[in-house]
Amino acid sequence: MSLAVINPATEETIATLEPAGVEETDAAVGRAARAAPAWRAVTPRDRARLLRRLATLVEEHGEELARIESQNVGKPISGARGEVGMVADVFHFYAGAIDKHHGETIPVAGGIDMTFREPLGVVGLIVPWNFPLNIASWKIGPALAAGNTIVLKPAELTPLSALRLEQLALDAGIPEGVLNVVVGKGSIVGARLVAHPDVAKIGFTGSTEVGRGIMEGAAQTIKRVTLELGGKSANVIFADADLEKAAAAAPYAVFDNAGQDCCARSRILVERNAYDRFADLLTAATQNVKVGDPAEDDTEMGPLISAQHKETVASFVEGQPLFQGDTPDTKGFWYPCTLVEATNDDRVAREEVFGPVAALIPFEDEADAIRIANDTQYGLSGSIWTNNGARALRVARALDTGVLSINSNSSVRVSTPFGGFKQSGFGRELGMHALASYSEIKNVFYATEG
Ligand code: NDP
Predict the structure, then answer these.
(1) How many other β-carbons are positioned within 10 Å of the β-carbon of residue 111?
(2) What number does the ligand 1 atom closest to the CA of 229 have?
(3) φ and ψ at residue 421, rounded to 5 degrees
(4) Closest ligand 1 atom, CA of 209?
(5) Do 364 and 272 form a contact (C-beta atoms < 8 A)?
(6) Hey, which end of the chain has fewer CB within 10 Å, N or C?
(7) In degrees to the nearest 10, what's the CA dihedral of 321, 324, 329, 334?
(8) Alpha carbons 442 and 269: distance in angstroms, whole number
(9) Catalytic pick from 228, 271, 300, 429?
(10) Binding site membership of 228 for ligand 1 (Cβ less than 6 Å)
(11) What is the per-residue pLDDT for 143?
């Protein structure tokens, strides 16, 4: 059966594709395996040049890629432009990282001991629909830099930007077979990559539930896995913070990408003596979020990805919300910006909504804030707002989460490590840290005594 790719802002079909099955997946793994020996032999300098050329082509085709992403995900074009800019930056970064990811010599008796960073071989990359090209690049960049070949499976809902990138990689001169994109169902193509004996590693971003299955499946062939999973991150606002600034920023930490963001700070924890004032400021700021046509330059929030997902998101809102915004009266899977008051035991505070719904939760003091923030199975991201520097660092050290920001909601950067604690997964993407999980350390002893 063919696969209809939908624009979630209009519900129109924008492409029809033939989804791959097990046979096509095996063929792609075969191409990647055949391309592997030559790719690992490319000199670091030349591999860097090829990655840099890919980065430049992404920049040159930036508007085209941003439009593809905006139409396929329903995300505002301004956000899509920023994401494509990051994709180019990721490839530039890993082009520059190739000759800085090196081994060491270790003093031992009787000879010289040295280590090498060897590629893993063929890696299977499985990515979600919320930031399709961005998240793919976080895996492709270090995987190629470390000398691996790739089979990439985009989400069925959003395959278009990955297919375009596959062409751009060839245009950049990256040899055929090095980057292969296979479009098809997770339960077929994804599962086959996990089971395939010639795939050395799975780099996965997606839900905790699917991640758990991938970990189980990978055990059969002792595959390496990196898992970037769900989140339920806390935005912790102390009464001594710049409340205006914190409230102005908070909506964009939840409603960006219509809340379909694993880093969404969807639990807003507010110190009780500042709660009422902060709730007023937050409501006013949320009213200003511009929801509408993703193709417009000033749109800040688009629709959800699908009708089914909209139903799931709506199921989290029970009773009268503190605030609920408007949505366009047109076709599309729209859901309004929604603020609810909650306790940390409510479903809206425990499960990942993955939509524009934020839960306001009061806390009593610093210890209570830490307790509530950590009272979740997840540990991906979070923010701390306070003008007390010592408190900011105390709380940052106490939170069981992988990526934090203080007096800011921005914690994802090309050069800094990204990944979760607890059931948000393990392994780190971005920065130099990502290279470690796309290579093996080989230790060699060379006897020098006669
Ligand atoms: P899913 O886990 O449903 O899907 C992610 C990817 O896995 C898709 O490509 C999907 O394919 C594939 N997949 C589905 N089933 C299997 C399977 N049995 N074996 C192998 N692959 C499979 O997540 P969503 O796409 O719905 O994305 C939303 C989730 O991703 C949220 O929970 C969110 O938190 C998380 N996420 C985490 C991020 C992070 O960095 N920590 C970043 C972004 C999202 P297909 O859809 O084609 O069936």
Answers:
(1) 12
(2) 41
(3) -100, 170
(4) 2
(5) yes
(6) C
(7) -80
(8) 46
(9) 228
(10) yes
(11) 98
What residue's CA is closest to ligand 1, atom 20?
190
91: tokens are 């490839």
How far is 210 from 229, CA to CA, in rounded Å? 9
Q: Which residues contact 220 (CB under 8 A, 6 or more apart)?
A: 195
Judge whether 69 counts as a catalytic residue. Answer: no
Residue 354 Cβ < 6 Å to ligand 1: yes
The response to whether residue 194 sits with its C-beta less than 6 Å from ligand 1 reads yes
pLDDT digits (tens, 9 = 90+) for 141-182: 999 999 999 999 999 999 999 999 999 999 999 999 999 999
- pLDDT tens for 77-113 read 999 999 999 999 999 999 999 999 999 999 999 999 9
**Model pLDDT, residue 450:** 80
Active site residue: 24, 69, 166, 262, which one? 262
pTM of the model: 0.97
The reply to whether ligand 1 has any atom less than 6 angstroms from the CB of 67 is: no
* Cα–Cα dist 12/71, whole Å: 10
Is the beta carbon of 103 within 6 A of some atom in ligand 1? Answer: no
Check if 263 is active-site. no
Give residue 430 CA to ligand 1 midpoint distance, Å: 19
C-beta of 206 in contact with ligand 1 (< 6 A): yes
Q: Is the C-beta atom of 130 inside 6 A of ligand 1?
A: yes
Which three-class secondary structure string do you get for 167-217? HHHHHCCCCCCCEEECCCCHHHHHHHHHHCCCEEEEEEECCHHHHHHHHHH
What CA–CA distance (Å, rounded) separates 182 from 26?
Answer: 10
pLDDT tens digits along 430-442 = 999 999 999 999 9
Going from the Cα of 215 to the center of ligand 1, the distance in angstroms, rounded, reads: 13
